[in-house]
């Protein structure tokens, strides 16, 4: 009881300390991630190597998420945040030492480090998602999710620029040690953060049975289940278009590498603005309404991008539409996450989030497999048209289906 009282009385200081730690450790980790990709690009110049690196970064989330959830529900949350950071730091030290001694990094060792980093994230992501509802009052949960989105978007804006600057002025082994710095900062801050712990069940972890239990829990809430499926379809359609942003800029609009970078950055700036709106104005009585609007806005802006003229004016419109799409994007992810967090007790949330993260993550690589050949066959701009129309159809389904459209109203009644 004393711990719960502390969490309520001091929750703002506590959660902002936690978000600060996420920002500082996250930005150092992303700098290293970008540096590794740039190193592979510079050393090999191989699209196959880069594709393999991207796939290795995604596979652990897809394959392990359903089985990580049971451990998240039954394990001390601080330990689940601290131990993966320490493991990532140890891997960084090994990689850096090899670089100092040999002045190069074997590709196989780089791939192993990418897999371990991805496994670490697979444990940390559902842990963070599952502890937020225990750290803040229920009526502030949507706002805090929005502010977490702000932190993540800010990392996506700052890390590439800072990483490129550091990549140019310091050696790669030293740059990799930023992961160690991030782990030290993250672990130190987490030690001072209060995370309420709920009683753990004595029942042994049964991986397959627990994964099925998480799937059954998610499917038992029909409105959430349908929205998760729509999110999976949306990701399947959206990812191929998003992966083609550089090609759209440089091939379709005949732009430069710098302009391609600007397009990537403006999307993240838009997402930061969207997260800020949710973070400070996010107390909606019906969150389905802004969620549906976000799907329509993303669909319209994406679809319109495919019909733009192939000139500088078209590029300027592409820039503007991309910014609007970025603003809309956090509304779907953040509001859906807040509703899931409020729909299940904390001791079951890890298993539910494991299944949801796996479904959402699976759609990305599947879409990416077809992105290149499809763009070559029908034109990169038509990928944007397909993504836009598909997203609009998903939004129409959520709106027309009474179970999804009314889900949050019913949830708010239960909470009250």
Automatic annotation (TrEMBL):
<keyword id="KW-1133">Transmembrane helix</keyword>
<feature type="transmembrane region" description="Helical">
    <location>
        <begin position="291"/>
        <end position="309"/>
    </location>
</feature>
<dbReference type="InterPro" id="IPR011701">
    <property type="entry name" value="MFS"/>
</dbReference>
<protein>
    <submittedName>
        <fullName>Multidrug transporter</fullName>
    </submittedName>
</protein>
<keyword id="KW-0472">Membrane</keyword>
<feature type="transmembrane region" description="Helical">
    <location>
        <begin position="352"/>
        <end position="371"/>
    </location>
</feature>
<keyword id="KW-0813">Transport</keyword>
<keyword id="KW-1003">Cell membrane</keyword>
<dbReference type="InterPro" id="IPR036259">
    <property type="entry name" value="MFS_trans_sf"/>
</dbReference>
<feature type="transmembrane region" description="Helical">
    <location>
        <begin position="176"/>
        <end position="195"/>
    </location>
</feature>
<feature type="transmembrane region" description="Helical">
    <location>
        <begin position="46"/>
        <end position="68"/>
    </location>
</feature>
<dbReference type="Pfam" id="PF07690">
    <property type="entry name" value="MFS_1"/>
</dbReference>
<feature type="transmembrane region" description="Helical">
    <location>
        <begin position="15"/>
        <end position="40"/>
    </location>
</feature>
<feature type="transmembrane region" description="Helical">
    <location>
        <begin position="383"/>
        <end position="403"/>
    </location>
</feature>
<dbReference type="InterPro" id="IPR020846">
    <property type="entry name" value="MFS_dom"/>
</dbReference>
<feature type="transmembrane region" description="Helical">
    <location>
        <begin position="107"/>
        <end position="132"/>
    </location>
</feature>
<dbReference type="GO" id="GO:0005886">
    <property type="term" value="C:plasma membrane"/>
</dbReference>
<feature type="transmembrane region" description="Helical">
    <location>
        <begin position="224"/>
        <end position="245"/>
    </location>
</feature>
<feature type="transmembrane region" description="Helical">
    <location>
        <begin position="80"/>
        <end position="101"/>
    </location>
</feature>
<feature type="transmembrane region" description="Helical">
    <location>
        <begin position="153"/>
        <end position="170"/>
    </location>
</feature>
<dbReference type="GO" id="GO:0022857">
    <property type="term" value="F:transmembrane transporter activity"/>
</dbReference>
<feature type="transmembrane region" description="Helical">
    <location>
        <begin position="265"/>
        <end position="284"/>
    </location>
</feature>
<feature type="domain" description="Major facilitator superfamily (MFS) profile">
    <location>
        <begin position="14"/>
        <end position="406"/>
    </location>
</feature>
<keyword id="KW-0812">Transmembrane</keyword>
<dbReference type="InterPro" id="IPR004751">
    <property type="entry name" value="Drug_antiport"/>
</dbReference>
<feature type="transmembrane region" description="Helical">
    <location>
        <begin position="315"/>
        <end position="340"/>
    </location>
</feature>
């Amino acid at each position: 009881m004393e711990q719960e009282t502390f969490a309520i009385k001091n929750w703002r200081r506590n959660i902002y300390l936690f978000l600060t730690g996420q920002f500082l450790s996250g930005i150092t980790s992303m700098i290293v991630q970008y540096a590794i990709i740039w190193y592979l690009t510079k050393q090999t110049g191989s699209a196959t190597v880069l594709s393999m690196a991207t796939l290795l970064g995604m596979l652990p989330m897809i394959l392990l998420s359903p089985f990580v959830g049971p451990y998240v529900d039954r394990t001390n949350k601080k330990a689940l945040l601290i131990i993966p950071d320490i493991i990532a730091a140890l891997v960084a030290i090994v990689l850096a030492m090899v670089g100092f001694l040999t002045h190069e990094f074997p590709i196989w060792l780089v791939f192993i480090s990418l897999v371990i980093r991805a496994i670490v994230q697979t444990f940390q992501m559902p842990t963070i998602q599952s502890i937020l509802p225990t750290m803040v009052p229920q009526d502030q949960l949507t706002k805090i999710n929005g502010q977490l989105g702000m932190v993540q978007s800010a990392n996506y804006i700052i890390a590439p620029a800072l990483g490129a600057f550091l990549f140019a002025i310091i050696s790669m082994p030293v740059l990799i040690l930023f992961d160690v710095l991030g782990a030290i900062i993250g672990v130190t801050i987490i030690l001072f953060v209060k995370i309420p712990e709920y009683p753990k069940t004595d029942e042994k972890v049964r991986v397959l049975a627990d994964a099925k239990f998480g799937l059954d829990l998610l499917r038992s809430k029909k409105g959430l289940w349908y929205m998760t499926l729509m999110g999976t379809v949306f990701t399947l359609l959206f990812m191929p278009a998003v992966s083609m942003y550089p090609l759209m800029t440089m091939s379709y609009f005949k732009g430069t590498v710098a302009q391609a970078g600007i397009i990537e950055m403006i999307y993240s700036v838009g997402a930061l603005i969207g997260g800020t709106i949710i973070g400070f104005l996010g107390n909606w009585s019906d969150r389905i309404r802004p969620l549906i609007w976000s799907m329509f806005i993303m669909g319209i802006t994406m679809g319109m991008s495919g019909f733009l003229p192939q000139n500088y004016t078209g590029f300027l419109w592409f820039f503007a539409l991309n910014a609007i799409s970025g603003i809309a994007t956090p509304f779907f992810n953040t509001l859906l996450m807040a509703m899931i967090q409020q729909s299940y007790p904390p001791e079951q949330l890890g298993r539910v989030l494991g299944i949801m993260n796996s479904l959402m993550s699976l759609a990305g690589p599947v879409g990416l497999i077809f992105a290149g050949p499809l763009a070559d066959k029908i034109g990169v701009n038509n990928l944007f048209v397909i993504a836009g129309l598909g997203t609009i159809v998903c939004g129409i389904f959520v709106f027309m289906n009474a179970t999804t459209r009314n889900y949050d109203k019913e949830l708010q009644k239960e909470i009250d």
